[in-house]
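Why show two proteins at once? Because comparison is the fastest way to build intuition. When a single record is shown, students tend to memorize it. When two are placed side by side, the eye starts asking what differs. So, the first record is below.
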Amino acid sequence: MARDTYKMAMDYYERGFSLIPIRLMDKKPMSEWMEFQKRRPIESEISQWFQDDGANIGIVTGAISNLVVIDLDDQEAVEYFSRNNFAKSPVVKTHRGYHIYYRHNKLIKTATYVNNLKIDIRSEGGYVVAPPSINAKGVRYEWVKDYGLNDLSIADFPMELLTPKDTAKKDITPIAEIYSGVREGQRNDTLARLMGCWLKNKSSLDDCFAMAHAWNSRNNPPLLDTEVVKTVTGLFQRYATPTPVTGTDVANKSTLISLADLLAEPEENLLWVVKDTLPLGGSSIIVAKPKVGKSTITRQGMLSVARGEPFLNRETTPGSVIYLALEEKRSEVRRHFRDMGATGAESIFIATSIGKKDPIAELKIMIAEVHAVWVVIDPLFKFLAVKDGNAYSEMSNAIETIHNLARDANIHISVIHHASKVNKSGGDGILGSTAIFGGIDTAIILRSDGTTRSIESIQRYGVDIPETTLVFDATTRTMSLGASQAIVATVSLEQSILAFLKLQLQPVSENAVNKNVQGDSAARCNALREFVKNGSVVRTGAGKKGSPYLYEVKKEGLSQAPEPVPEGNPFDAVGPFDLSDESDVDKAFLGSLEYDLFHPPPQDKDEPREILI
């Protein structure tokens, strides 16, 4: 049965609602939708989205649509709403409850768990899925009979809903019982309730995490750790109230702490956007020379965090990401995300410009608006106006400003920056003052030798990424970790040793290998021992004075003694030849080589002859 989504969408549009496309059998927008809180789509956009029933319909709530929607998400919420005889208004039947549409009121904010019930309010910054959309279980959203938009006018929002009436009738599980664990279906709601208690008691974020993980371990089954982290972080960022410090407090309280108290403090529970790499409340710098791929790999990381997927083989904490693409073309950013398979449903928010007067203040507003966990500034000097990148004091203040914002907002901020033109190792390869490297938690450094790209990290916390090759997929324009540079160097050294030994006409000593093959001496020694062990190299000699170890590549097919070569002119073994014929001259030379291989000249017992090519 056709849903005729386009016809319904046009009806909503003509009523003045702002619409967005929602993924089929889902609740997530198909693309970035924030702009439709400020403007309504045009008809061609609606036609593109909803023709052929290709999407679910989303209605943006708030002033743009003159709507506030109440979401009753279980039977208890429905019964509470019915008992209080709130104003009648159009109603949509959802899978588990109802959406009730009311006229917008600027005093009403988006909220959850009104009166400690599963009653949510969608106002500014929100949206609802509308009929005839279908959810993940195949259930259709439908207007309730006699409560459709054509049956009832949209009523004013019932302000009395915000005043608790009969919550005493609600059977609320005591907090003490909750700590013993809850069953599946109650875990998220219970965690939100517990967070309310902890925040009311002004618990720190670390304390909230410790208590949440302890409580979750008693659930059957427990929530995923990533889900606990996401919920706790989101609620803390949104509702935690910092304790003000008065001038008197500062004057009367010493900042000194005894060593005994310091040692008695519990270990800090570090939280990560990318595990062991990008800490929450921290900062990082991503460095490379032009065209090496620093923006490319960072956008790949953004997509991974927005989806909660691993990045560079490390776990991520899912959340919203802000990308300040202050240098790259919009079209290139769009193409890259498309090539990587982005659908637009991911919580990635992009700005291609930012005010120069106070970019930090503007960024704070962005972070609060989307509850970001990661901000990427691309590049650093386009964000902060710096007169002299080599001035230590100026750069130290600039980096400290960014780092303090990350710490205060409990997010991670990455800045993308250029490498020095001179090839230097580690933090010395970062363009500008050493204050840049000294002021951040993590430096991620990309390099290219023209054919191979590599990545490494230098970190204050977490686990360093050793210099490792990057494998680039040209189709998806993504990178993955290859072999570490140490392994690559070892393989290269092994190949060089074998190549050298294959060129020798008779066994040679280890000293000859060391003189003719570049590389670490210990690595050469280990490689030779391993070759002997696996049989690819044959070792003779006693390994002592007068009889040193000699090495040669094992010759395939020569396990038996070679056929004897007649004495006399060695050319007779493969001749006769016409020396006026160049091909015969070549054969003659090869014949002499073969003779030398099987008839080496006499050697002194103490000083073996080494034929080096």
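Second record. Ask yourself what differs from the first in the token line.
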Amino acid sequence: MSILGILIIVLVILIGFIVGLFLFLKPIAAIEIQKNFYATINWRIEPISMPKELRNTKIMGLCLLGIVFMAFVYFTKKLF
């Protein structure tokens, strides 16, 4: 695998880790970013149940962290 390919994989894993941590640690901020994005394209979204939305956002962050960890392990074993 080329150096560029390795750098791209490392970058994707790093971005996934950062986004996963953000979703888990700052779910309210993540929801607000999503609401602001949809407002810019002329849509209004509101969670029906904020406690459920916070829980689901945290779970999504943990799932993303798990996927990123599995990708890291896979590519580490493949490279070495």
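One difference worth noting in the second protein: The chain has a mean pLDDT of 96.
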